[in-house]
From TrEMBL, chain A:
<keyword id="KW-0436">Ligase</keyword>
<keyword id="KW-0963">Cytoplasm</keyword>
<dbReference type="InterPro" id="IPR003850">
    <property type="entry name" value="PurS"/>
</dbReference>
<keyword id="KW-0658">Purine biosynthesis</keyword>
<dbReference type="GO" id="GO:0004642">
    <property type="term" value="F:phosphoribosylformylglycinamidine synthase activity"/>
</dbReference>
<dbReference type="InterPro" id="IPR036604">
    <property type="entry name" value="PurS-like_sf"/>
</dbReference>
<keyword id="KW-0547">Nucleotide-binding</keyword>
<comment type="function">
    <text>Part of the phosphoribosylformylglycinamidine synthase complex involved in the purines biosynthetic pathway. Catalyzes the ATP-dependent conversion of formylglycinamide ribonucleotide (FGAR) and glutamine to yield formylglycinamidine ribonucleotide (FGAM) and glutamate. The FGAM synthase complex is composed of three subunits. PurQ produces an ammonia molecule by converting glutamine to glutamate. PurL transfers the ammonia molecule to FGAR to form FGAM in an ATP-dependent manner.</text>
</comment>
<comment type="subunit">
    <text>Part of the FGAM synthase complex composed of 1 PurL, 1 PurQ and 2 PurS subunits.</text>
</comment>
TrEMBL record, chain B:
<keyword id="KW-0315">Glutamine amidotransferase</keyword>
<protein>
    <recommendedName>
        <fullName>Phosphoribosylformylglycinamidine synthase subunit PurQ</fullName>
        <ecNumber>6.3.5.3</ecNumber>
        <ecNumber>3.5.1.2</ecNumber>
    </recommendedName>
</protein>
<comment type="function">
    <text>Part of the phosphoribosylformylglycinamidine synthase complex involved in the purines biosynthetic pathway. Catalyzes the ATP-dependent conversion of formylglycinamide ribonucleotide (FGAR) and glutamine to yield formylglycinamidine ribonucleotide (FGAM) and glutamate. The FGAM synthase complex is composed of three subunits. PurQ produces an ammonia molecule by converting glutamine to glutamate. PurL transfers the ammonia molecule to FGAR to form FGAM in an ATP-dependent manner.</text>
</comment>
<comment type="subunit">
    <text>Part of the FGAM synthase complex composed of 1 PurL, 1 PurQ and 2 PurS subunits.</text>
</comment>
<keyword id="KW-0547">Nucleotide-binding</keyword>
<feature type="active site">
    <location>
        <position position="205"/>
    </location>
</feature>
<keyword id="KW-0436">Ligase</keyword>
<dbReference type="InterPro" id="IPR029062">
    <property type="entry name" value="Class_I_gatase-like"/>
</dbReference>
<keyword id="KW-0963">Cytoplasm</keyword>
Length: 80, 229
């Protein structure tokens, strides 16, 4: 099973890199970008075949290592 | 007094702390490789600056899960003093020994220069050699020193006097103009709730010898020697 994890900064946490991306897009002439937020994408290849168990395991991985929950949120997508 | 300096792959200020401790203690600190979880009983554990594990994932994230950190966390929870400088502060935050997180500098630039710090309190084992409110000159060198904690956490830090140092001007003014990295409330260093763990971004170990351009960092190591000998 594949787990795809997005880690993003929480709302309200200043994202200077996202701000710089937003600014540069504007200066390149791309209009209409209201906000840019930068995050991380992590893909895991799991041996687990049970979706519920996989979700539980990946959640623990996010809490323990993959995300810093002081500043970051994470979302998990599982695909057989 | 006995001290240990934990050395991670990518640490680069370990020998600076070693020299600062040697000069203040008059004896050799123990250098502990990150894979050695069973090191001698010591009075002080130092986590040095650098770029441990290449800052992979997040600064300090990998080191915080290394075998030696399990032992450091256990000893810190028993009251052993722990000093984390720069990357050491990031490791302390990632391991939960001090509250908050260190994010990318608000200006996105690596900041490497001497700046001024206000010593918030001197009733700590780390700062008894300073005066409360004293302004000291200490170098910083970091890309991710932007201190963040949620509003509840920030209030708790301020209410419990857990802020150790704030970035300020040469005259002691704490304001936005003297904030090098966007840290909330100009925070440059914090204590844990018990006060036995200090994490700070600036490098006192780099200004302990007049030959290096200043000695404002030396009082921290002398404070520790006075408290722990």
């Amino acid at each position: 099973m594949k787990a795809r994890i997005h880690v993003t900064l929480k709302n309200g946490v200043l994202d200077p890199q996202g701000k710089a991306i937003e600014h540069t897009l504007g200066s390149l002439g791309f209009a209409g970008v209201n906000q840019a937020r930068q995050g991380k994408f992590i893909e895991l290849d799991l041996e687990e075949t049970d979706k519920a168990k996989a979700h539980e395991a990946v959640t623990a991985m996010c809490e323990k290592l993959l995300a810093n929950t002081v500043i970051e949120n994470y979302s998990i997508d599982l695909e057989q | 007094m006995k001290a240990a300096v934990i050395v991670f792959p990518g640490s680069n200020c370990d020998r600076d702390i070693q020299v600062a401790l040697r000069q203040s203690m008059g004896s050799e600190p123990q250098m502990v490789w990150h894979k050695d979880a069973d090191f001698d009983s010591v009075d002080l554990i130092c986590l040095p600056g650098g770029f441990s594990y290449g800052d992979y994932l997040r600064c300090g994230a990998m080191s915080a899960k290394s075998p030696v950190m399990k032992e450091v966390i256990a000893r810190a929870n028993k009251g052993v003093p722990v000093l984390g400088i720069c990357n050491g502060f990031q490791i302390l935050a990632e391991s939960g020994l001090v509250p908050g997180a260190l994010m990318r500098n608000a200006g996105l630039k690596f900041v490497c220069r001497d700046l001024h710090l206000k010593v918030e309190r001197n009733d700590s084992i780390f700062t008894s050699g300073y005066a409360a409110g004293q302004t000291i000159r200490i170098p910083v060198a970091h890309h991710d020193g932007n201190y963040f904690v949620d509003s509840e956490g920030l209030k708790a830090l301020e209410d419990n006097n857990q802020v150790a140092f704030r970035y300020c001007g040469a005259d002691g003014t704490v304001d936005l103009a003297n904030n090098p990295n966007g840290s909330l409330n100009n925070i440059a260093g914090v204590y844990n709730a018990k006060g036995n763990v200090l994490g700070m971004m600036p490098h006192p170990e780099r200004l302990c010898d007049a030959a290096l351009g200043g000695t404002d960092g030396r009082a921290m190591f002398e404070s520790l020697v006075a408290a722990l000998s």
